[in-house]
Design a protein that fits this description.
The strands form seven sheets. Strands 5, 8, 9, 11, 12 and 13 form a six-stranded mixed β-sheet that branches. A five-stranded mixed β-sheet has the order 19-20-22-21-23, covered by helices on one side. Strands 1-7-4 form a three-stranded antiparallel β-sheet, with no helix packed on it. Strand 15 and strand 16 form a beta hairpin. It has about 350 residues and is α+β, with helices and mostly antiparallel strands. The protein is built from four helices and 23 strands. About 20% of the residues lie in helices and about 25% in strands. It starts with a strand and ends with a strand.
């Protein structure tokens, strides 16, 4: 059952450069043997019942199976994005959202609640699980969904929900004591709207998987290091695009290669306050909106990061955009003689842009 549906570089003139993409017994003993057998069976049955009531997880007991009240469930395939590799869903506080869920058993009388990442107690009160909608927790943070029934609960693994801090909580350049800076649209009409909200990240959150190959820490702003909580904007479309690029490169090497490919994120989210101090960074850089990442991938598998790798990643981006037009965006290929400066800028700005640069 299914329920639910470093930054862009510019030409000195300021213009972006364009590029292409199972014994018998005597009768007198029958009554006694039958009584002993019945007693033994009753004892086993009582043993099973007690254990079934104590554990929400199905466990084998002898040749019998104690059945849990809460059915097994998992996020539906559609919960993991176009790439099938997303591990983080996004929501605003108390927002009603679709949480695609496959329930393997009787879904009647099921309730749900949320558990904070790293905790075991319920962070929210139980609510009926009906239809395809759930309400996100009212406070920012990272959460797991838990199913509840008759006093038992089962945590759903594989997908974390990130509840964002709304942009409206920003006061001037500050967000809960963290300096974000000012977006161009806050001063100039018609410019790109600021992010709807930000991830609130603590040291305990940095290793949470955000996709198959990426973690929350990969998108931390490189400014104000050591200041917690930190905040970052991340666009799910960008995450999908990066994983699709990795999948395309893996296809060139054979199916098993996908587990071997690593991606190094040089720059993910970049707060406006930080962006303005980046040499030659675009004034309205896509990094500020969580739409961009500068990444390095050993695309040819030789153990080095060279200009050839940057060009191969660029080709993968072109192919992904042809297959997924909704993920079109910017591609900047940066090459040099040093491995640390061979990387590719990838974004999902919604229109095609191409340029080359020196790392």
């Amino acid at each position: 059952m299914e329920l639910g549906g470093v930054g862009e570089r510019r030409h000195p003139t300021g213009e972006e450069l364009e590029l292409p993409d199972k014994l018998p017994v005597r009768k007198r003993h029958t009554t006694r043997v039958a009584w002993i057998t019945a007693a033994a069976i009753a004892a086993v049955g009582a043993f099973q019942f007690l254990h079934a009531a104590d554990d929400a997880t199905d466990k084998p007991i002898g040749t019998y199976l104690a059945r849990a009240v809460v059915p097994l469930a998992e996020p539906s395939g559609s919960a993991f994005g176009a790439s099938g590799e997303l591990r983080l869903a996004f929501a605003m506080p108390a927002q009603e959202i679709s949480y695609p869920l496959d329930v393997h058993g009787d879904p009647t009388a099921l309730h749900y609640a949320w558990i904070r990442n790293g905790d075991t107690t319920l962070a929210t009160g139980p609510q009926p699980l009906t239809g395809d909608k759930v309400f996100a927790p009212p406070k920012a943070g990272f959460y797991r969904l838990a199913l509840l029934k008759e006093g038992q609960q089962r945590s759903i693994e594989g997908l974390t929900l990130a509840v964002l801090v709304p942009f409206e909580e920003k006061e001037g350049a500050m967000l809960r004591g963290y300096r974000i800076g000012t977006y161009l649209a806050e001063r100039v009409r018609g410019k790109t709207p600021p992010p709807e909200g930000f991830l609130e990240i603590t040291p305990a959150d940095v290793d949470i998987p955000i996709t198959k190959h990426l973690r929350v820490g990969d998108f931390l702003n490189h400014d104000q290091m050591g200041v917690w909580p930190s905040y970052a904007a991340v666009n799910p479309k960008l995450l999908d695009k990066l994983e699709l690029v990795i999948a395309e490169i893996a296809r060139w090497h054979g199916a098993k290669a996908i587990t071997d490919i690593e991606i190094d994120v040089h720059s993910g989210f970049r707060a406006p306050e930080h962006n303005k101090r980046i040499r030659r960074a675009a004034r309205d850089s896509q990094h500020q909106y969580g739409d961009a990442a500068d990444v390095a991938i050993d695309a040819n598998g030789d153990g080095k990061l060279t200009a050839i790798d940057s060009r191969m990643v660029g080709l993968a981006v072109e192919i992904v955009e042809l297959k997924h037009p909704d993920l079109v965006g910017g591609l900047g290929i940066y090459t040099s003689g040093h491995s640390s400066t061979n990387y590719v800028h990838i974004d999902v700005r919604g229109r095609r842009a191409r340029w080359r640069g020196r790392g």
